[in-house]
Amino acid sequence: MRALGPATAIAFVILLAGDGAEALMRHENDVPAVTGWWLLLHAAVFVLVAPYKVRLYEVMWDVGPPSIPKPGARRRAILNVVALDLLLFLGGAAWLWNLHDRLGIPVLLVLGLLVPSWWICIRLTLAGPALALGALGVLPLSLSGAVSATKGRVWEITFAGLLVGAVLLPVLLAIIAATLWLQAAVVRSALMKPALMSPVNILSLVTSIAVQAELYRRMGLPSASHADPAPA
Which residues fall within 8 angstroms of residue 208, CB to CB, at 6 or more apart? Predict the structure, then answer.
């Protein structure tokens, strides 16, 4: 995060603005109103944050300064990251729970759908670097290769994710406590929670990619290399 300096600050502001806008769309029970605008908001955040995620992949896979890919390669890398984020979002737990709240789908059915959702997310753990760095020509790993690499490692990957959650849990609990105190004693505002949660969101984004990088190295997968300069 320090290495990317201004880019990290910009990504934080984007996430903060997205969280604030979503807070204004929430029902009284604090559940997001699933509308076309809500979906468009998340898509916009994914698009705006994607360049930062591509840079994170480059830094954590140690490909040095911004690589110099062939024309259009960086744009393809960003679009690949956006497409993957949308796929994981539409199949994620938050989306499924919103369907329960809005459409009245039984809780047991939603919980049953969480199992394949979890399995898909685990199998796509290394899809991000494969799609982003593969498009830049610095990582010799295809999407199918990334999915195959996670075979038989479901519990290892799950445990790694739980460790990250355990590290972030004290921060999350402190923010929740601060939110409740501020809303009760100082000011009651729908924007208070997203303002305090945004640091957790940026930390979660960065640490998730760091975990992907560590798992990638432990699996002994091909090392990244510097991209060849584009022809003049």
Answer: 161, 164
Q: Are 34 and 102 in contact (CB under 8 A)?
A: yes
Nearest to 81, CA basis, from 121, 48, 59? 48
DSSP 16-44: HHHHHHHHHTB-TTS-B---HHHHHHHHH
The DSSP string of 80-132 is HHHHHHHHHHHTSHHHHHHHHHHH---HHHHHHHHHHHHHHHHHTTTHHHHHH
From the list 96, 114, 92, 116, the residue with the least C-alpha distance to 105 is 96
pTM: 0.81
**Token pair recorded at residue 31:** 């559940």
In the block, tokens 């009760």 appear at 184
Q: How far apart are CA 176 and CA 71, in angstroms?
A: 45
Handedness of CA 57, 83, 99, 122 (dihedral sign): negative
Give tens-digit pLDDT for 50-82: 999 999 999 999 876 565 666 688 899 999 999
Q: CA quadruple 165, 118, 120, 217: dihedral positive or negative? A: positive
Average pLDDT, the chain: 79
For 182-229, the pLDDT digits (tens) are 656 555 555 666 666 777 788 888 988 999 999 999 888 887 765 554
